[in-house]
Amino acid sequence: MDNQSETLLLIETTAGTIKVKLYNETPQHRDNFIKLAKQGTYEGTLFHRVIKDFMIQAGDPESKNAPKGKMLGSGDVGYTIPAEFVYPKYFHKKGALSAARQGDEVNPEKASSGCQFYIVTGKVYNDSTLLGMEEQINQNRVHGIFNSLAQKHMKEIYQLRKNNDEEGLYDLQDKLLAQAEAEAATQPEFRFTPEQLEAYRTVGGTPHLDNAYTVFGEVVEGLDVVDRIQQVATDRSDRPEEDVKIIRVSVVG
Fold first, then answer.
1. Are 53 and 226 in contact (CB under 8 A)?
2. Is the peptide bond before 207 cis (omega within 30 degrees of 0)?
3. What is the pLDDT averaged over residues 112-127?
4. Predicted structure pTM score
């Protein structure tokens, strides 16, 4: 499929209409979103989680006719969708349409919710902040490798602790850290692409979500509506004080 055949949908809300296009490179998310739209699954659901300068989230079936104060965000349609990361081509710039999901601790495969989605608002970043993010990501890579190596030495670590052998523990730590740094050095350093840098410096976004949540589309018209929604007053659970409702989602092209 080429770019001309990307699917367009209208998300009609009580705050205005948002037009999105779905990426063909994320076919399972595309087909699922189209199916739910045609089934009317989203009709009457709320934007139940709105965080200014971050994102607006919707699609929880339990949000239909939800009374004030009801905790929302855990509703689903009984299945998840395997992650479809097309990174770095698609990333969390402002207007990105992405799939919500459960956290890594219960969802290490990063599978997406079958129905909940969010639209990125985010914020604009300067060069020094983006550079700091790159350095942090590279440092986190070392920590991740170190933790993985430590897991393989847990029996040895427990024995050293049991024997109160602090010197042995420090020696093992130094050895594993050196191994982690050596392994990380064999991998190319993380750098944002020119497209990411341009977007995050100008329109903004949420770079810390990149390559962790599936981006499967983007807003092509109605970013002013997205901005209107992100500005609404919310309660302590980030739910808008006045409901922002999806009237319908329809395929238009």
1. no
2. no
3. 98
4. 0.88
Local structure of 94: helix, strand or coil: coil
What one-character DSSP code corresponds to residue 161? H
- Residue 245 CB burial class (10 angstroms; 0-12, 13-18, ≥19): buried
The whole-angstrom separation of Cα 110 and Cα 92 is 16
pLDDT digits (tens, 9 = 90+) for 170-201: 999 999 999 999 998 898 889 999 999 999 99
Calpha distance 222→9 (Å, rounded): 12
**Hey, is 51 helix, strand or coil?**
strand
Number of residues assigned to the chain? 253
pLDDT band at 5 (very low <50, low <70, confident <90, very high): confident
Which residues is 120 bridged to in the sheet? 55
Q: Which residue has the tokens 């089934």?
A: 39
The answer to whether 71 and 60 are in contact (CB under 8 A) is: no
